[in-house]
Amino acid sequence: MTDLRVAGRTWAPPFPLDLGAVLGPLRRGPGDPSFRTATGSGTGAGVWLTANTPAGPGTLRVRRGDAVEAEGWGPGADWLLDGLPALLGASDDDSAFECHHPLVAEVRRRRPGLRLSATGRVWDALLPAVLEQKVTGTEAHRSYRELCLRFGTAAPGPLPDLRVPPTPRAILSITDWEWHRAGVDGARRRTLVAAARVAHRLEDACALGGEAGRALLRTVPGIGAWTAAEVAQRAWGDADAVSFGDFHVAGLVGWALLGRRIDDDAMAAELAVYAPQRQRAVRYVLAAGLGKPRFGPRSSPRDHRAR
């Protein structure tokens, strides 16, 4: 990949901005080759992310000073720079949000810079979301890393170990044994192949937004409410897209708001007062970092490559 660099952009957000909290959900595990955070003031400092854009692959670096400074590389650099405000929450309207729990009110007060990012891209959010279906985070992140390294492309720009996630065409080129090597079982690979075949149409979900956008995603066999919500949260900053069916979310919400374990139905009832911004309330709950009591052993990661 050539080191094609374009002019950067400086943007002054008209609201408090917690850069790490806004961009953090885009990272898929500690070894994500498409996302990098480097502290300090050196040439590599900042948040780095890669993307497949309508113009081609691109790399974006974002740094926070008095204003936000961004630089882009590759054919998709201009597209990424144009989308910088939305990426950092400029399209996120929280003006009508009301706090109905003391914890939510306290976190909202302490974390005014926590906004919902919108990448404007469905495919790059869909690929890792499908990989995270019904497996541990460790398993999903390992598979995502393997697919990026083997079937993604070298990211434009100065960091040689950054990768752009595989395109839909690249996913369609993967053979059965290569899926096996990446630790992806049959159900998830069939979902990814089905999504890759109609990926150009799925990008319309960003323009539709909300439930209509999530419904479009769910037309693909294997994509249910959980996966659609995970994509919607990142691709268009859907403030109401709760990840029902998640192994952890209902428990965390229950212990934080009610002091007890609850299931998805009880969580839906408890969050109903926050509609149409239920996911924003969940983000505040997760940002509190309270966790939940453990009553048994953790789920053990499985290695599908050994089967």
UniProtKB/TrEMBL annotation:
SUPFAM superfamilies: DNA-glycosylase. It comes from Saccharothrix longispora. It comes from the Bacteria. The keyword DNA repair applies. This is 3-methyladenine DNA glycosylase/8-oxoguanine DNA glycosylase. Keywords: DNA damage, DNA repair.
